[in-house]
Amino acid sequence: MIRMPESVEDAVVRILRIANTKLPSDIGWALEAAAGWESNSVAYTQLGAIMDNVKEAENTGRPMCQDTGVPVFYVSGAFDGSVAGRIVEGLRRATAEIPLRPNTVDPLTRENHGDNLGEGMPIIRYHPTDDDFLQITVMPKGAGSENMTKLAMLNPSEGEKGIRDFVVNAVLDAGGRPCPPTVVGVGIGGTAETCIEMAKEALLFPIDSDNPDKKLAKMEEELFVKLNSSGLGPMGLGGDTTVLAVRIRKAHCHTASLPVAVAVGCWATRRASVRMYPDGTTEYFQGAKP
Amino acid sequence: MILSSPLSEERVRSLKIGDLVYISGTVVTGRDAVHMRALQYLKEGKRTPSELQGSTLYHCGPIIEGEEGRWKVVAAGPTTSARMNTLAPEMIRRFGIRAVIGKGGMSKEVSEAMEDVGCVYLAATGGAAVTLANGLSKVTGVEWQDLGMAEAMWRFEADRLGPLVVAIDAKGNSLYEEVRRSLVR
Question: ipTM score of the complex?
Fold first, then answer.
């Protein structure tokens, strides 16, 4: 029997389906661990409702959250100009087939075309490498968390304390709005726009993996403890579980700048990837490459 | 405890923050666009959907499958209620809304309107869209479909929708305020 290799368009539909219906295992484990240590009864109810929902979504193949978000696609490896068109078609099909909620509108008229496309959509980030495979990762992100994104152009003199205070205040001021317990992505350095991109891409790191940068790993740990001692809790209703993880990325910046960005991922921090090899084989995964 | 919707003022006023409840009965959805249009229509003297009066209003933009008469709820979790902060006080007063279901909490002004009218804020678990959709067993109608799937006003017959936490009661208490006051920064 000759098996037709999967098309890029089919693979895009599939990663959107996986990302929306199945929570990455690292996030699932973190939620279970949180339920184990949570001492607040309302908070425990919230974590229980979340875990029931995750199971039910996976069992019935339905999106775990009605806000299937605006997907950001990260394309890396070997590819050519045709990949954008395949992603457009894959997203159009996935919107009807899964189904996804049509979320994209004109920013001024608020007109919705019902297909999650439109001017500037979908958002695709390209990272070409010398590998022989094509890798596409999707992160669907809802507005509840996206609306809590923050950027500060700090003075260099504010230093690490300034960074910590900014992150803590960004998460606590957001309260229950981004659906805590959240994954907190932090970008430090770069320029304004790359700082925000780093913060968002930090949400793609599996939360059970160590940050290879020791200094950042220590900062992640300190912020994790600090935020979970705040008392904000799941959905902002109080409790011991405010964040599931803090993930930080950094880049060099101008000597007169200290940009810091916070991108918040709700408890449903969703992601899925596909790798497509030249021999026609494909691999799907939701965290680091297995 | 299971509450039957539409709710009576007496029942609503007996609830206190921290209570865990489920809702059975009529629930309507309304978010940004429903608030804007309902209040605009009132101002212009135009007809508004009668089911808004005394309603249990769910801040939710669901995913609905199928077509007229055969709608199926796929996913229906709460949206961020704070976006409705400026319009909600008038909405609650003009339509005598008895319960608002949402996530993230609402402002002091909303809480005051709730105290005056006899209305509570029920926190649904954000993102628990599939189990909450299971509690909205039947779609019984839709108004203002031109606003799009997320913004239209859907009407459901709920069957034990929840779990929901009474997070703002009709006595001016807010669980969010209590948490905020004791936050450790």
Answer: 0.91
